Amino acid sequence: MKFAALCLISVAAACAQNVTVQVGGKPVGTANTLNFESGTGIVQTCHPDGNARVTCTPSYDFAVVPRWESLHGTQNYCPSFTKSTSYACRMPRGPLSGYTTGMTFLLMVDTPCGSQCSLNIDDLGPVAIKRSDGKLDPLGVLAAGEPQWVFYDGVIFRLMGGGAGSRAPVEDRDRDARARRFIASMETMPYARTMALETTAGDVHKTTTSNAVGNATINAVTPGLEGQHMWVIILNDQLSAKTVSFGNNFHSAGPLTGAPGKAATLQFISDGTAWYEVARTTNL
User: Fold this and answer.
1) DSSP 171
2) What is the pTM assigned to this prediction?
């Protein structure tokens, strides 16, 4: 009896001293003690899982490791509500220790910069804002309610979006597009008794009449954006003249009656509430 009891005590002691460690269900070693050392921003959570073992799961300490939305969403956001061109803001995740060359900020102001302006972040002191060339003042490029990326070059803040600065103000064409060629996207609409013209599908819309369908009506899905232009090409089939009317979101000069085998073009412009007909050409 004494021998058996000693054996049981020895086995229990041996079992208590041996810990088998598994990673992903695979053994990696056996020792008397299992110790977890958390790295910077990493914490461990352990619990019995009901299978004669303790399972530990690592996780992030978000007090040390910020979430992606924190970094991406507001880390560089700099809103100024000074109601003057002496702009100022504070960083959302704590004050800056100083301006560093290469820093970028998303600046949102409440007052336009008509000539000279400056930016003071976290009370580090005002720094002049210039165009991307580092010489000219914004001169209207920095507008209220319009976000602009600014870049600190070690001396001043430079605007990164809009305003190269090499032209005089009267020659400023930052809001214009210049190119050798402009090709508009075209949508082909299947001809039907009622057609929905998808104004976001392109600037040119084309359809060919069908004798089996007869006359038709075109409705614009949206009234468009202010200043947006649109062209409609209608090809009449060879059999008979078809009349195409313009319905929802259109202010046209009236229905278009085609001619067999001929085409017509119509131009529209939007004021944001409807499409207004500018011109039409028939019998093409």
Assistant:
1) G
2) 0.43
